[in-house]
Design brief:
The structure is a single chain. The protein is an alpha/beta fold and 243 residues long. It has two domains: 8-114, Vaccinia Virus protein VP39 (Rossmann fold, 3-Layer(aba) Sandwich); 128-140 and 155-164 and 184-243, no CATH class. It has helices at residues 9-18, 44-50, 72-79, 92-105, 141-152, 211-220, and strands at residues 27-28, 31-32, 62-66, 84-89, 110-113, 126-132, 153-160, 192-194, 207-209, 223-230, 233-238. The strands form three sheets. The protein has a seven-stranded mixed beta sheet with strand order 5-4-3-6-7-11-10, sandwiched between helices. A two-stranded antiparallel ribbon has the order 1-2. The protein has a two-stranded antiparallel sheet with strand order 8-9. Strand 4, helix 4 and strand 5 (110-113) form a beta-alpha-beta unit. The longest helix is centred in the middle third of the chain and has 14 residues, at 92-105. The mean pLDDT is 95.
Length: 243
């Protein structure tokens, strides 16, 4: 795939239609891939909420976009000058969209078919790792965070998850006696909601945390929360190897 290929607007529209339903609305030389997205201009509207927390100049940096979907965030990182961007996803249809979006955007990005549980196969740590909108689609979410810390995050983790339940964070002790039960009923206690069947018409929405839970999980996996630029997004630093 060449990053310099010029494609006509009619050809772009045809290929966008051929590649199926898009979850990412990306502007491809004036052609919108998902103009009627139920979340609006998504994920551009999300990106604007936290983009200032990522260095504007990524020259010489490497980046990994986990669950890259159609590649919106991968393209944004490349536009900031990242030396190399790798995007992984477990859905080949999304990767086909991502490769086409990168081609039209004239950006060289390495897209690979891979799920989160195989990130050790990358055999590389990245300066910036994006883990956006993935956690709640996983049957083993804490394992995924542990693997990120152990194998791929070198410095910065940009994390985002759907959150439900209480937005409070209760001050908790490090330990409680076995007889203590009231603490679990506190509004700000870390809770992960399990979805047995379906949520928002999506059977892959398995685990949805509240705010206290997602923050506790990040810390438990060895990440330090640096900032929270918007309700669902966290900028983290790799503090230690888990365990």
């Amino acid at each position: 795939m060449s990053a310099t290929v010029s494609i006509t607007p009619d050809e772009i529209r045809r290929r966008v239609a051929e590649l199926g339903d898009w979850f990412h609305n990306i502007d491809l030389d004036g052609v919108q891939t998902a103009p009627n997205h139920f979340l609006g201009d998504y994920p551009s509207c999300k990106w604007r909420m936290f983009e200032s927390s990522i260095p504007a100049d990524l020259t010489g940096k490497t980046a990994l976009d986990i669950g890259c979907n159609a590649g919106f965030y991968s393209i944004q990182l490349k536009r900031r000058g990242a030396a190399r961007v790798v995007g992984i996803d477990s859905d080949p249809d999304y990767l086909n969209q991502a490769r086409f979006a990168a081609q039209v955007s004239r950006k060289e990005i390495d897209f690979r078919l891979m799920d989160i549980y195989r990130v050790s196969e990358l055999e590389e740590r990245f300066d910036i790792v994006l883990f956006m909108g993935v956690l709640y689609h996983l049957r083993h979410p804490l394992l995924a965070l542990d693997l990120l810390n152990e194998y791929v995050v070198k410095d910065m983790l940009v994390f985002q998850s759907l959150l439900r339940g209480s937005s409070e964070v209760a001050p908790l002790n490090e330990n409680y006696p076995f007889a203590e039960t009231d603490v679990f009923n506190q509004c700000g206690f870390p809770v992960m909601h399990f979805v047995e069947h379906c949520y928002s018409d999506d059977p892959t929405n398995w685990w949805i945390p509240n705010r206290a839970c997602v923050e506790a999980m990040l810390r438990s996996s060895g990440f330090e929360i640096v900032s929270r630029p918007e309700d669902e997004t966290y900028i983290c630093k790799r503090k230690q190897q888990h365990g």
